[in-house]
Amino acid sequence: MTQSLFILVGGFLGAGKTTLLWQASQHLLRSGINVGLITNDQAPDLVDTGMLTDIGVPVAEIAGGCFCCKFGNLTSAADRLLAEFTPDVLIGEPVGSCTDLSATVLQPLKDLFAEQFRIAPFSVVVDPDRLREVLDPRRNSLLHQSARYILGKQLEEADAILLNKIDLLTPEDREELVEETRARFPDAQIFCISARTGEGVAEWLAFAQQPAQAGRRIVEVDYDTYAEGEAVLGWLNATLDLFGSASVDWAEFVRDLLGRIQ
Using CA atoms, how far apart are residues 86 and 36, in angstroms rounded to an integer? Predict the structure, then answer.
């Protein structure tokens, strides 16, 4: 049986995971590599799923809980994509409020599905402002302390930390953040990327496709704090109908909108 590469891309809400999946998919397709995507959130009919489907990539959506709580759904979705589209690479994007994925997702995948999947190092996307909040706990933040706890745990368990939105940083700020991140998380590979422009995405994908140990760190999690953090990160689920008086490329509209808010 031929193995497919499975890349899990975690990260906090608004870090730019979906935009990264869009860029990564385009890069892989241009390289002649078939790709399938798995999106995930607490509610169905995700904008993420619609946007990614519009670029011609097969997408499976898992709603109602994170991959860790929906592990059977995750593996079933992966099996469906493999059976229908035979992708060389699968990329999964878990809920932005989720952590402890190394223990609850990567280890079971390695133990139980080694014949189907080769698991890439666990990559976690973070934007500069959120990263600074982890590096300096005294920094003022609108985030609840328990939500910041989740963010910190996400980075703590990462095999690779993807510092996103570097197009918004000066070279000096970028270098400073990388040095501070390397000092705080010395065992993680650090990549500077811009999911919006594509800068650094090829280098990260090259790393992800090389044989390497995945899920090297199992974090200790205070589940009371974790639960509180998820609770304070409640969000609105809604469906909108948009109409235009002229012809509109709605896929381009959504990509532009997501680029602006991320």
Answer: 8
